[in-house]
Amino acid sequence: MTVRLRAHHLLCMLTYVGKGYSPAFVDNYEAIAARLSAGEEIEIVDGPDDICAPLLSGAQPHCLGDGVAERDRKAAEAVAACLVMTVAAGTRVKPSGSLLLHLRRTFAEGDIRTACSGCEWSGLCDAVAADGYANARIAMAATDEAGHRQGHLQYRLSTRCQT
Ligand code: SF4
Prior knowledge:
- The protein has 163 residues and is mostly helical.
- The chain has one domain (3-161).
- It contains six helices and three strands.
- The chain has a three-stranded mixed beta sheet.
- The chain binds iron/sulfur cluster.
């Protein structure tokens, strides 16, 4: 099994803290967060993904809009540059502790956030990153958490030192 994510959700997963569009959306996201925290592989898809699923039965879901597709394009470009790899439909990514740490550090520095422009959740994501992702629901996989605990602690301390 893989978790199917559209490209801009590679960013959103970093700051997910249990808030979302509806109770059904959050319930579904919680299940996905648990799978990612357990290290299940991500597969990048074009268009609506596993996170979007509960919204697709509504009238004119925003997940199908051109603006969201543009957000995906910007996120794919930024994450690809950050990770020095291709990010496109079919790309598979393991959500390891080192990957989350690297993406979260870069996100907090603002370097991969062009896709966030105009997003209604941007203020929340700013606050989550500024707080060192303390309440983020997607955690490092247990298998590599210990090895990165020290680095994560140093990262949190360095983040706080900048504010
Ligand atoms: S600001 Fe919006 S697009 Fe950016 S990570 Fe947060 S929810 Fe996702």
